[in-house]
Amino acid sequence: MPNSPAAHPTARLSSGIEGIDDILGGGLTPRRMYLVEGAPGTGKTTLALQFLLKGVQENQVGLYITLSETRDELISVADSHGWDLSRFTILELLSDEGLDPQYEQSVLHPAEVELGETVRNVIQQVAELKPARIVLDSLSELRLLSQNQLRYRRQILALKRYFATRECTVLLLDDNTADPGDIQLHSIAHGVITLDNLVHDYGGNRRRLRIAKMRGIKFREGYHDFTLDTGGIDVYPRLVAAEHHQEFSADILSTGTPGLDALLGGGLIPGTNALLIGPSGVGKTTTVVSCLVAALKRGQRCVYYVFDETLSTLTIRCATLGMDLAPHIESGLLTLRQIDPAEISPGEFASDVRESVEQKGVQYVAIDSLNAYLQAMPGERYLLLQMHELLGYLNQQGVITMLVLGQHGIIGEIQNNIDISYLSDIVVLFRYFEHQGEVLTAVTAVKSRASAHERSIRQFRLSHRGVEVGEALRDFEGILSGLPAYRGGTALLGATPHVIDTSR
Questions:
Q1: What does CATH list as the number for 243-499?
Q2: Over the range 10-39, which residues count as b (16 or more CB within 10 Å of their CB) and which as e?
Q3: Who contacts 18 (Cβ-Cβ below 8 Å, separation ≥6)?
Q4: Do 18-238 and 243-499 show the same overall fold?
Q5: For the chain, how are helix, strand and coil distributed in percent, rounded to 5?
Q6: Using a CB cutoff of 8 Å and minimum separation of 24, what contacts does 452-460 make?
Q7: Contact by Cβ (8 Å): 180, 194
Q8: What is the mean pLDDT of residues 43-52?
Q9: Which residues have CB under 8 Å from 480's CB, separation 6+?
Q10: Separation between Cα atoms, residue 71 and residue 85, nearest integer Å
Q11: What is the share, in percent, of the chain residues with pLDDT greater than 90?
């Protein structure tokens, strides 16, 4: 499997963040020096604190050496997350005098004989504490004190040798204040973790990280979304569908509507996804809900991700159509999730879907609608590729996925701004058409990779009994254009014989 973490015989050291450990295939290689780089505000300090707190949980001594932030600032950050920093040592390396240019000093002289008072204090602390985990925050102050690149590189190499003799795992934090083309630290560090903070025109910031380098282990390449909130950093590893296959039954399951089952060649098949396309108000969402209700009655768990409307509007509308969702929500079989696409990253959304499937045993996933998901994140490149991986993952897990895609227009020419029909196994098309002064609805299956589906066009109607799908509209021509010609006597849903005009 390309880019997939591989097992490694050497014992790993947890980074304190589950997502990073997953990306690295188990964690960091112990007793090495790592660089964590990123602009101010990307989460370097929070990551470092989680690294040390994880060591405390494993009965490892930790040391935080700060050259930039004060002890009070670190404690304030920790308090906002509910953390207790008294369980490891914080050493403020530089005093006010040490920042004055006239007190120029070499942090580590190669012979280690002309160390300044502050550096001797560091060595004394390391010697006394014998820490297993060390954080040095940040390298920008060392860079300024060094005054030239040669001295700076020699000091970093000296630090590396010094800590290596003490069998420490070290995180060096760097705020990217140096020349963007200067990557000499990358060659010195055993591994490099890069943090980014992207600001779009609308919505919250999007944070992401990537492993720029990691010697000796296989890791998942590319960018991975993460969030920084109360409680620390949560990383959402990039989803690779090929890594998540399991056996499942492929028996066809009913949609709960006989006419729709006949149209689809028997129903829906686990491990496939169905895309419902049509104009606004045609009944796509209600059709999805009716399929979920049929699954819920079979005792299957379902999750419905709602992007367009509020949950209260959805539940009220479904109840008026005879599909009361409240009992299923109370039983725990149905989970409704209101999603704000301006505040959630694609990686976080995919992680939530994975949690629903793997931890809660969800067998039906509905996403309503793709218009909101795809168009509300225009700054996210390759969003369709991410959706392709998500759908591939759900198919590999034997989940039935239902997607809703709205189209512009009512009758006549209808257009798509987004075309993801090539991603879908089943495509169900809804259309309005006019007949005797009424706007009616037709439905047809235009694609199915999983079964032999009907090619007919059937009438579709919503009533107090829910979804109804009638017989094939064989007496009409031009239904998909919206202006059909009626040439027969087939009764329509809800129509009485005297209403049907057979003279045309």
A1: 3.40.50.300
A2: eeebbbbbebbbbbbbbbbbeebbbbbbbe
A3: 235
A4: yes
A5: 35, 25, 40
A6: 452/265, 453/263, 453/264, 453/265, 453/426, 454/262, 454/263, 454/264, 454/265, 456/263, 458/259, 458/263, 459/492, 459/493, 460/282, 460/283, 460/430
A7: no
A8: 96
A9: 429, 431, 442, 444, 457
A10: 10
A11: 55
Q: Sketch the domain layout of the chain as residue ranges.
A: 18-238, 243-499
Say which residues have a Cβ less than 8 Å from residue 127's Cβ, sequence separation at least 6.
none
Q: For residues 494 and 34, give the distance between their C-alpha atoms in angstroms, rounded to a whole number.
A: 71
In the structure encoding, which two tokens stand for residue 68, read together?
A: 């930039």
CATH superfamily of the 18-238 domain:
P-loop containing nucleotide triphosphate hydrolases (3.40.50.300)
CA dihedral 20, 351, 241, 372 (to 10 degrees): -130
Tell me the per-residue pLDDT of 373-392, one tens digit each, with 9 for 90 and over. Answer: 776 565 556 778 888 899 99
Structure tokens of 284?
A: 């796509």
Asked whether 131 and 62 are in contact (CB, 8 A), the reply is: yes
What are the tens digits of pLDDT across the range 462-504? 988 889 999 888 888 888 776 677 776 666 776 544 333 433 3
Q: How many residues does the chain have?
A: 504
Q: Order across the sheet with 302-306: list the strands.
A: 334-338, 302-306, 364-368, 400-407, 273-279, 426-435, 438-448, 458-463, 466-472
How far apart CA 149 and CA 155 sit, in angstroms, is: 10
